[in-house]
Amino acid sequence: MRCVWTQAITNLLAALNVGGSPAVAYRARFEAVSADETAFNAFPHKIDCLYGDAHDSVKIGADVVIRISVSATDEVDLAMDPLVLWAWRQVRADPTLGGIVTDAYPTGIEIGYLDKAASDQVCADMTIRVEVEVDRNDPSVNKTYPA
Questions:
Q1: CA–CA distance, 104 with 16 (Å, rounded to integer)
Q2: Looking at residue 15, which CATH number applies to its domain?
Q3: Are 113 and 107 contacting, i.e. CB atoms less than 8 angstroms apart?
């Protein structure tokens, strides 16, 4: 079994990799994406736990960073824009990520340079917030959508 937020990342990657995707989506690929590769790369970032009145569950807010990498000789913001748009739309097309979470939504985008050479390689880190309720003693048990 896997933690519910890990299952959600799997479904998020599947949504980014559907037919027509402008780039391949990877899971936590820490080595650098080659300078000429356009790609999505998902990294788990932060997990918040909120203990409420129910003694058998905990509300989870997990942040997943989708790093969108692209190269262009100029106007890199214009090269990046369709990828950001694609990722945003794919997340919001099914905000339950296949019935795994309560909601998934972008909370911020940060753009930066990775390498400045013959072409500019830039990335946009899109943070996706994933909300779900899990068993207090076992985060692989989904309390939002019990099996």
A1: 13
A2: 3.30.2000.30
A3: no
Residue 65 lies in a domain: yes
Which residues share a beta bridge with 104?
A: 130
Task: Say if 144 falls within a structural domain.
Answer: no
Whole-angstrom distance between the N-terminal and C-terminal Cα of the chain? 13
Task: Say if residues 25 and 83 touch (Cβ distance below 8 Å).
Answer: no
Per-residue pLDDT of the chain (147 residues; tens, 9 = 90+): 899 999 999 999 999 999 999 888 988 766 656 666 788 999 999 999 999 877 899 999 999 999 988 887 777 778 889 999 999 999 999 999 999 999 999 999 998 776 666 557 788 899 999 999 999 999 999 999 887
Residue owning tokens 């100029």: 74
